[in-house]
Design brief:
Helix content: 40-55%
Oligomer: single chain
Strand content: under 5%
Structural class: mainly alpha
Distance between the termini: 17 Å
Number of strands: 0
Radius of gyration: 17 Å
Order of helices and strands: HHHHH
Length: about 110
């Protein structure tokens, strides 16, 4: 839950990774994640042409591993869901959304 996450301190093994932040700043976010678990980032980790992703990318489910990370899908759920569903999501999770830095689109959300 959001409340449980907010009670975590810097020593906690829990780290918040928002997909849109990762899409907008992949190097910085990956570096932050790896640092938290005690690993060092390496240049080929985000290179879609790297051999690191070669084996997995042969499977259809992992085909996008060979593409660069983009912001193309950020916020797409708001455009793909019917307005009534977006309103329901925002009504149900409006406070949690705001606590995590998201702005509900509709006034009746929170």
């Amino acid at each position: 839950s959001v409340a449980a996450y907010q009670s975590c301190d810097d020593a906690s093994p829990v780290i918040l990774v928002r997909s849109e932040d990762f899409c907008r700043r992949p190097k910085e976010e990956l570096s932050r994640i790896l640092k938290r678990i005690g690993l060092r980032p390496e240049s080929q980790q985000l290179d879609p042409n790297s051999d690191v992703t070669g084996r997995e990318a042969k499977h259809e489910a992992h085909a996008r591993l060979q593409e660069p990370i983009t912001t193309e899908s950020v916020g797409q759920w708001r455009n793909e869901l019917p307005e009534s569903d977006v309103r329901r999501v925002e009504r149900t999770l409006g406070e949690e959304m705001q606590a995590l830095g998201y702005s509900p689109e509709f006034a009746d959300a929170a």
